[in-house]
Structures are given as structure tokens and as C-alpha cells.
Predict the structure.
Amino acid sequence: MTTLVVFESYFGNTEMVARAVAEVLGADGPVRTLRVAEVEAGHLEGLTVLVVGTPTRQFRGGPGIRAWLAKQPPGRCAGMRVAAFDTRVDPLAMRNPVERLVANAFGPAVGPIERHLQRLGGTLVGPAEGFALESSTGPLRPGETNRARSWARGLLGALGDPPSAIGAPPPSG
Ligand SMILES: Cc1cc2nc3c(=O)[nH]c(=O)nc-3n(C[C@H](O)[C@H](O)[C@H](O)COP(=O)(O)O)c2cc1C
């Protein structure tokens, strides 16, 4: 299994999650962890797994990740297993109720990123996840790095299943 974890990070929190995820996925083969600005087309050749991590910015994914996804050709993730996560301010830390309402209305930033990966032909390994910060610049809430490792272990487990088994109903009888 060859894995690429691509992330965008301004204050280091998304990077921290990306590295924790990569460390776990590394149990099953080579893993590269790259800032989105460093990713070249060749880095995606022969990949088994692509994980994308983004900060939430104005209720959406980071501009770098969104621009990078937008320029990928159709079918770029065909044959890959994909997963995505975001980092976001803990809603309980949002003092402004309007901000909280808008955040809820938009939904998690990772949703459109995950769907974009699927439109590019990727097959989801597992559900997207969000990791909470205490404030805009961090730090991550206590326990979030461990939760990132757990999420990655879940992905690792799911990677053992054939793609068609993910989300398929249990066999009858
Ligand atoms: C310009 C800007 C916009 C932001 N918009 C949101 C937002 O809409 N929702 C949210 O939960 N956090 C928002 N944040 C907080 C970011 O999610 C947080 O800075 C980011 O997850 C930190 O990740 P990083 O350390 O990897 O940069 C925003 C932060 C900045 C600077």
C-alpha cells in the first residue's frame, strides 16, 4: 500500500493531524506527507491511498486544497482509496451565535472536499472526520491527536476490505 497524505496548514494544527494519521497508515507501507503546495503530478502515480487534510476557512476547505483539487484532471483518483479530514474551531468555543448558526448551515468543510475526491474517481475508505481546536490558531483540543490516530486505524482496518464491501448491506441469511 502506497499512501500520500496531502495537507494545508497555516498554524501547524492540520499538519499535526496529518502527521499522526500518516504515522498510523505507515504501518502498512510507504507513506509520504506533503504540503499541498509541494505536491506534483508524479506524487500521485501508483498511489493506493490518498488522504487530504484541510483547515476550515470561511466555512469551506482551505484555498490551497480547493485550488489543487480543482485543477486535477477527471479520473485523477481512479483506482485510489480516498479519505479526508478537516480541522475547525470547536463550536463551543465560538462565542458569536451568528457564527455558530452559519457554521451549522454550511456543514463541515470536509464534506465538499470528500465529494470532490469521489468525483475524481476515488473510492472512500471511511467517513470524513473533523478535529477540533480550542481557537483559530490552536492548539488542538486535548485528545484530538489520539482521535486522529484512532481514525487512521479505522481507515487501515477498512483498507483490508474490498471497496465494494464498504457500505454494502450485510449478506442475508
Ligand atoms: C481566515 C480564517 C477563516 C476561518 N474560518 C473558519 C470557519 O469558517 N470555521 C471554523 O470552524 N474555523 C475557521 N477558522 C479557523 C481555522 O479552522 C483554523 O485556523 C485552522 O483549522 C487551523 O489549522 P492550521 O493550524 O492547520 O492552519 C478560520 C481561520 C481563519 C484564519
